[in-house]
């Protein structure tokens, strides 16, 4: 994929991931019982970036998503905790997509990403606030991550079908 087309698609994915991340933070009120629980809508854009771009480009997009959401929503802690989840999720999904060669469906990839995102955030919160109490939320966050991962994976599947039918970009794996 050539320079301008690639840059435009990455910019669109990054912008969309930020918007979805902000929407997600507003929807988290529905998960108020469990702190940190979110749907993970921005995960969809990260899956797309992994599928259609190389490691450096897709990682840069994921990093920018976390950085911009951190700036928009508040504090350094927002960035640190958010990026920790994004990093775990990104690396896990990248490895599964690139190494498994279609062993996992996008729903499976998304579930793995959701669970790793939750674990990454729990680790960051535990270290950032020096409190082991956050570990009590691991079981609930993992269960929620499975359900939200299925939902975002199904949405990602639909978008991937549209992209492939339109033959817009070749996959990178």
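-> sequence recovered:
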């Amino acid at each position: 994929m050539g320079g301008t087309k690639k840059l435009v698609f990455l910019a669109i994915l990054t912008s969309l991931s930020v918007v979805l991340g902000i929407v997600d933070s507003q929807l988290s009120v529905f998960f108020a019982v469990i702190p940190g629980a979110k749907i993970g809508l921005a995960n969809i854009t990260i899956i797309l970036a992994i599928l259609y771009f190389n490691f450096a480009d897709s990682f840069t997009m994921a990093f920018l998503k976390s950085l911009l959401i951190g700036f928009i929503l508040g504090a350094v802690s927002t960035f640190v905790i958010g990026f920790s989840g994004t990093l775990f999720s990104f690396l896990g999904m990248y490895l599964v997509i690139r190494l498994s060669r279609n062993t996992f469906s996008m729903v499976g990839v998304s579930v793995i990403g959701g669970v790793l995102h939750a674990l990454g955030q729990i680790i960051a919160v535990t270290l950032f606030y020096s409190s082991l109490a956050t570990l009590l939320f691991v079981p609930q966050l993992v269960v929620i991550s499975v359900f939200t991962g299925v939902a975002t994976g199904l949405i990602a599947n639909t978008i991937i079908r549209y992209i492939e039918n339109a033959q817009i970009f070749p996959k990178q794996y």
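The longest helix spans residues 138-166.
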